[in-house]
Amino acid sequence: MASEIMLRELKEIEAKTSADYADSLRNTAAYLLQKQWVWKGKRGQKEHFKLCEDNQTYFHKLFDGLDMTWYYDRNFGYAGILPRGSGKQLDIISTLFLLILRKMYDAEASMGRTELGRVTPPTAELLNQYEQVKGEKPLVTETSAALDNLRKKGIIELGNRDPDTKLHEVTVLPNITRVVGPTYVGTLNRFIDSYTPESASDEATHKETYAIETEEALDDSAEYPHLGTYP
Q1: Of 110 and 225, which is predicted with more confidence?
Q2: Looking at the structure, do residues 127 and 221 belong to the same domain, yes or no?
Q3: Distance CA 120, CA 115 (A)
Q4: Are the CB atoms for 38 and 51 separated by under 8 Å?
Q5: Are 118 and 215 members of one domain?
Q6: CA dihedral 198, 106, 175, 217 (to 10 degrees)
Q7: Averaged over 152-178, what is the pLDDT?
Q8: Which of 18, 50, 53, 208 is spaced 20 to 30 A from 141 at the CA atom?
Q9: Distance between CA atoms of 159 and 110, rounded to whole angstroms?
């Protein structure tokens, strides 16, 4: 039924515009299913964003029928989708960096250190935050792989390499607030606040507690678990 309704709406749009315009809507929908996010200011995505902006009702209904949540943000210039229900999850290292980056995003934004909704936290502080959570510094190769994974998901951008940390400069995009809700930030903060690496046994206990809390939070989420659904 939903597909029939959307097909009828697309036919109505085609009648008011053109067959080429309707094809463009199909192409943009396919692009979103592959990339999840489109940005007004990114090369090659401006036309997709314009179509999303001009046809918000259509895309909202289309993706709602596909059991996905539609997002549009005029202020920061992006549109995107997140599937509902269960989805393929990120690996643990990428997950931790995602949560930490969301926490750092809030901290930077609260101090007004944003540009078009983007923040660029110091990579040294990113590593320090990770070490505080895990009790050990991450390997550069593992960190680079995790950050590149988040880049592919359209949540961050990577710039020039920092000669001190050997990592690429990280720019956190504003859609991270759509992907990671307050529940996960609260989980991370509780873990950091309770973390006291006084002994190996204490550290193991904290890690186990964090893993359990994170797993429970992910099970209750309608957002975060879907990051890995699309390449």
Answers
A1: 110
A2: yes
A3: 9
A4: no
A5: yes
A6: 40
A7: 94
A8: 208
A9: 23
